[in-house]
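The authors assume throughout that readers already know how a fold can be written as discrete tokens. In essence, backbone conformation is discretised, so a fold becomes a row of integers matching the chain in length. A single example would do more here than another paragraph of explanation. For illustration, here is how one protein appears when written out as sequence plus structure tokens:

…
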Amino acid sequence: MDLTSFPQHYKDNLEHYVKEGGGLLLIGGERQVYKEDQKLDALDRALPAKLAPPKSPEGTCVALIIDKSSSMEGRKIDLARLSAIGVVDHLRPIDYIGVLIFDNSFQWAVPVRHAEDKSLIKRLVAGITPDGGTQIAPALAEAYRRVLPSKATFKHIVLLTDGISEEGDSLDLAKEAVAHQVTISTVGLGQDVNRSYLEKIALTSGGKSYFLNDPQGLEQILLKDVQDYSGSTAVEKPLVPILDHSAEVLDGVNIASAPPLKGYARFVAKPTADTLLSIDANKKDPLYVRWQYGLGKAAVFTSDAKSRWAQNWVSWPGFDKFWINITRDLLDHSQSTEANAHFDSTSEEVQVTYHLGPDVEVPRNPPTIFVLGPETFKTPITLEKSGSRVYTGKVRVGGLHGLFRIRPLVETKAFPELGLYRENAELQHGSNPRPLQQIAQFTGGRFNPPVASVYDSNGRITYTSLELWPAALAAAIALTLAELIIRKWSGLRYLLHRS
């Protein structure tokens, strides 16, 4: 589902739910729309990742050239119309779209325009009917003429045909197109196409060529091609999940055995978020990312959980375990308690406060809680109910310093264990310079010298001893070996000469 289609009050309710201890999971899917001028809202604040900017934030210009000759009648033209509508659905309002139809001549079913009024554009595409012959070159030239002056960052043309046509000057046009950053892809339906001609146009202009005997896969091919050359947030290609670091939520899943996903939506993890899984070794985009938000937790899975991208995952043995673990991880935090402890220096007491979560059952009697500290300190603390869901307590620790643990006799989520460290008073004050000055003066040193002069000897000489015998012994051995070689050299030279 497109996040931008959520009503604002619905987003506000979701944020409030998570803050109060709920769990939120967003499964990305392919219909995410990035808006450059979109303001930060409640849902954006709650989620640990945000949509990545598309490849072309200034917009993309797409021209679809559709063969409407008589041979396209029936199933082919129906699928061609559906494919064009699918492309329109995935364009942003800042993108440009044009649909040019041709037979022996050409005409604009949808003149090049912003993809804002998608309902109107779809109605115009739905009205395309087949008739006539096949003349590709004039239609290609017309589409290029209209796309070229566009101010869009990416300019892309897709030619769809099931027939054979005279080549004309199409290859020269393709060369000119690549020089002006206009790419052309070609789609051939059936056997009666000039395969070599279509391949040359695509290759020369920097586009891609596709050939389908069965037009059933046309919509997916056409949409994928346009997305590859546009600013879509979707990435559709087989990619294996990458484990960033292990966590309890992945226990028993065996993520290393997970099959490739067929795509994902590009998100960017926020600075304090925890990315457990990423995808695409080159980009390292997040696949599963989570964080704590208020008393609850929110997470984003950037692929999907259905047959479009997760087709191989549905039959993977770890699929059910993965989603069960994620659900439990998010819902466990719906019953959390906010607890804190601090030391009151006036009364020398450790004071604790527990704010029970909204879904935590309020106990009839609070549990027995002990304060454990240094020097075998162990004292029970009495909790009193100071609010509808608030409990407080205190215990005097006197002059003890160190780590204090506040824990219930029986473990409970309503009253979790706390820790408090009280520093020694001496550690809370700065250094005493007088003893340091005396030490420096007594040893002939300097007190607090400038950094640049730390290694300055100030004319002083320090004597030290150095043992030279290891080096002398090594030199004697080396000289002895050298003398032996020199004495025996004439004999060795004679033997070498005879051999």
